[in-house]
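Usage

Read records sequentially. Each one opens with the input sequence:
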Amino acid sequence: MTSTLGAEISHCLKSKGVDIIFGIPGVHNQELYRGIEEAGIRHVLARHEQGAGFMADGFARITGLPGVVYVISGPGVCNVMTPMGQAYSDSVPMLIIASGLDEVTLEPGRGQLHEMKDQRAAAETVCDWAITAADETEAYELIDRAFLEFSTKRKRPKYIQVPIPLLEKKIEKNKPKEFYSELEIQITESRTPVSEINQLLESIFSEAPKVLFIFGGGASRCQESARRALSRTSAACFSTYSGRGIIPSDDPLNFGSYLARPSSMDVIGEAEIVIAVGTSLSEVDLWRDSLGATGRFIWVNIDPEAFSDQIGVHEKVVCDSESFLNLLLKVVKTDLDINWDKTLVSKFQKKWENEVDLERPGIVEICHALRQAAPDNTTFFSDMTQFAYVGKEVIPMSLSNHWHHPYGFGTLGYALPAAIGGALGASGAPVIAIAGDYGFQYTIQELATAVELELGLPIILWDNGKLKEIEDSMRKAQIAPNAVIAKNPDFCKLAEAYGALAVAPTDIKSFKVSIQDAFKQKKPTLIYITEKILSK
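and closes with the structure output:
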């Protein structure tokens, strides 16, 4: 029996555990769609490839599984590059499969449909790797390689381009073989040997040092091991924004996600041992050059390229977070004495929340109301908006991997489509989207997808009528604010036009009720709020 490679790619993905694909069909990639239903895969139709990419991102973040996207050549690839860049910067597993023009028959500059000068090279700028499959064997090999790396390396997007004639080529129907056993060996050999990690840990914990952990998003799926390690060592901790909830916010030795506060260096400097686990301590984690460690600094990451001497003198451990923490628990067999003052933790937390409130007045109160109204297991997807900048510091989290934000690439329009993908992967658990009035309009058309999918998704829209963060930044730089105010539509009517529900609470009490009611619906609810909500 024969089929086309395009159809067989869906079957190959199904054999890898893929149950859902995001995308938009077009004449150049329609062959990929031949096998979707036959393979038993669900397809989610986005309204724009940017939305499809963010949906895949949200699905991947909440499930840990790769988000898969089918796109057409040319504009489809260009449109999905922004989500690819976001997934790359935030270590999100995503697989983009795109059609490509036939290089054999391509006459550059002749204006073929969807022609680009170098489509593959363009995609490569925002992902881990981008490769054009030369034949069906290489197409299967590339898919195998991608899934192997998703499970063994730092999770980042991969791009596979398949020429249109190859997608249409008739091939035998069979289950592809597994490849890349040699690659797996190479990955294993790049890790720090277990014996060296044990020696390091034994030297650290030969006494009872004053230990401070910093947990990043790379440790978000080993919550139990992290909590046991913190308890066993009687350590204090910070988290990056993406590491929030690994240690509950109410833990008396958790300084929270205030790592970017300048005075966090005072706390970090008190530790005899600083252990950073699952974080690259990037600019968007610290917003300063140095971490501030004055004692011994141990840095754990699965990616050998994640470390930077600029952050401070450190000892590198190339290892996944779960394995490192489990080795630590074997070395430290009994609970150590507490060397931290719990009142100091509370003092700094209050200080930092007050700083946040002074910087962006009033939003802290709304954030606390949101936390009170949303179930404890709610997952939040936020956009580039002042509401989110406040929320990712002050909203307490008791579960890891439950707050997702476009941290590194910092793109607008992320929250709504990412929350749609997240809701599809959440198996009925509550999901909330948080957006600002400007960024929301980047991907507002994905409301139609959320309506089609019958998602009971609360969408909190913070409308301050301007690009307030940019206006504030211009004023600080002594630049007369320019191009920061835009006329907004009637967002509630617009949401209703898409078939969604819309409410505009005027006080904190009705805001909380609106959130709770939205979860009961079978369609998304736009919850429109402005600064006026604080005056009542």
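Summary fields computed downstream for this record:
- The two ends are 70 Å apart (CA to CA).
- The domain at 2-187 is CATH 3.40.50.970 (Rossmann fold).
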